[in-house]
Task: structure prediction
Amino acid sequence: MDRLSPIYLPIELNRNGSWVRTILLYDLSGNPVDASHWTLAGAVKAAAGVSGGALATFTITPTPGADGQYLIELLGSDLNAVDGDQAIVRLAYDIRATRNTYPPEILLQGPVILNPGVTV
Result:
């Protein structure tokens, strides 16, 4: 099985909003990847490479009956503890995949731009 190539994907969301995407995993031939034995987990931290606890985690749900499809969600309210509620704040995230006996590998990574939410 080939190693994963991390995908750079910036995320931008409002503190009172959410970021939701469906990702589709395909192999190099364009076929859906059977990800039924994969575990995905993602976290947001103050900066890339920072050790310690996450500021927030993603909700990641496999789409039933569809190989290689996952619904990924991050809520702005999960980042309420981040200082600067009236500022644009730059954070970092990654989503890691664990496959069978492979060590965890980064699937998605990039910045999280957290904007102040002005409407409720």
